[in-house]
Amino acid sequence: MKDPCLVFDGTVWHIFGSGGDTVSEQWGIHHATSSSLTGAWTQHEIIHLPIEGSGVAAPGVIFGEGSFHLFVQTEFMHEGGRIEYFSSPDGFRWTHVNTSLLSIPGTDEAGIYDPHPAVIAGQKVLVYSAMPPIVGKPNPEIFLAVSSGPGWEGPWCRVGKILSHADVAKHHNQPGHADYEWGIEGPQLVELPDGRILLNAVCFLPAGERGTRQRVFFAVSPGLGQPFRSLGPFLPPRGRGENGHASATLVENELVLCYQARPHAGTWRYGIKRNVRLPVAA
User: Fold this and answer.
1) Smallest Cα–Cα separation from 116: which of 258, 270, 275, 231?
2) pLDDT exceeds 60 at position 221
3) pLDDT tens digits, residue range 150-199?
4) E strands of the chain, at which residues?
5) CB contact at 8 A, 222 and 199
6) pLDDT at 151
7) Were 131 and a residue from 63, 118, 140, 152 both cysteine, which residue would form a disulfide, CB within 3.0 to 4.6 Å?
């Protein structure tokens, strides 16, 4: 289980994520439900969406206007790929609506993945990871698109890059380093009660043993179109492990984070942290 996305439909809590095998890289959509954040959680059958791709996984899901809205990648370790949009009345039965975004060969968006929808200042937005043509290791950064229509079907207007490697250089490995591991990924936006925008995403520490460097970090911005300032990693792993791809939600102004974590080189699992306090800027 990887890439959790926590969603509340007004009655039931849902976690959507990636369910599959890290050896064969065969993935589907993991789904679990609970009447409470504290569980117990019921795991349901893996959802296999009717689209083609070698990496159909890492769904970003939001509930609104009586329906679930799911955005999903088709690739994540390769150039190319699409962001596809599905809707559902209950989180179990999914209907393909349209293709939200296509990768753009030869640009900083030659590969696109890890989409996550949000409503910011009344606008429907998609935040996602994108990478230039791969030379050596992929080096994705964070991008934004805004719906030009009233609904989640778009059309989507690309805003461009909103967070780069240089913006998080204090706590993230940089391209060209001999031990570069990966880029910035797993982004999500949340509008805070004071109007600021919280970005939660994944970085890889500049040094350390592989299997211990992945971290959830926060960044904040005064508003759409304004720069993000990193607050750095804030969730220490247990022992020699690491944590990553997460989703945050506000529950009566309490910030709740659902994240993936693992012991050193072990199996990924989900965790929930409540009463999350924003750290001081890195």
Assistant:
1) 258
2) yes
3) 999 999 999 999 999 999 999 999 999 999 999 999 999 999 999 999 99
4) 2-8, 13-21, 26-34, 42-43, 60-64, 67-73, 82-88, 95-102, 111-120, 123-131, 141-147, 156-163, 185-191, 197-204, 214-221, 229-233, 242-251, 254-262, 269-273
5) no
6) 97
7) 140
Q: What's the CA gap between 184 and 168, in Å, rounded?
A: 9
Q: Which residue has the higher pLDDT, 2 or 26?
A: 2
CB 24 within 8 A of CB 54: no
- Integer Cα distance of 95 and 253 in angstroms: 32
Q: How far is CA 168 from CA 82, 197, 260, 271, in A?
A: 27, 17, 21, 25
CA 6 to chain CA centroid, nearest Å: 11
Residue whose structure tokens are 């989703």:
247
Decide the pairing of beta strands 229-233 and 242-251: unpaired
Residues 167 and 73: their CA atoms lie apart, in Å, by: 25
pLDDT digits (tens, 9 = 90+) for 75-120: 988 899 999 999 999 999 999 999 999 999 999 999 999 999 999 9
- Identify the residue with better confidence: 57 or 137: 57
Cα distance between residue 86 and residue 100, in whole Å: 10
Closest CA to 184 of 117, 234, 137, 251: 137
**Of 115, 13, 127, whose CA–CA distance to 72 is shortest?**
115
- CA-angle at 79, arms to 78 and 81, nearest 5°: 95
